[in-house]
Amino acid sequence: MRLISALLFTSLFTCLPTYAGNIEVSHAWLRLPMPGQPVAAAYLTITSQQDATLVSASSPAAGETQIHDMRIDSAGVMHMQAIPKLNLPAHQAVSLAPGGKHIMLMNLKQTFHVGEHVPLVLDIETTEHATAHIPVDLEVREAGH
Ligand SMILES: [Cu+2]
Known about the structure:
Elements: H1 2-14, E1 23-31, E2 40-48, E3 52-58, E4 62-72, E5 78-83, E6 86-88, E7 93-96, E8 102-108, E9 117-126, E10 131-141
Parallel strand pairs: 1-10
Antiparallel strand pairs: 1-2, 2-7, 2-8, 3-6, 3-9, 4-5, 4-8, 9-10
The structure holds copper (II) ion (CU).
């Protein structure tokens, strides 16, 4: 009941009830963290039918969630780096995949098991500065699967 009210509220608030239908999220999964590891990376592909921007994400399984990219430093070592937003050009499939951009779930509040489903919400801003909250279902998988 609470979820339904939240969805209705989102629709009313953005004044764009069909917007979520214009965004497709596929291949959504969460990499099973090593035991004791406090963070886990989520990967997915987003295709928006209009120019939009991923501005944040959240999950009840994490205390904090960030958008991360990878960068290579002067010594050739790869690092993760938080980025404030991710552009989603119209009609373009934007892939967050291992070795590149990802959504980092931090301060994990639970342990995960392969095959389990973890909820994630993407906050996506349109060019009209309306924000849509897209619920995503992450399947927990082992790296390389
Ligand atoms: Cu990361």
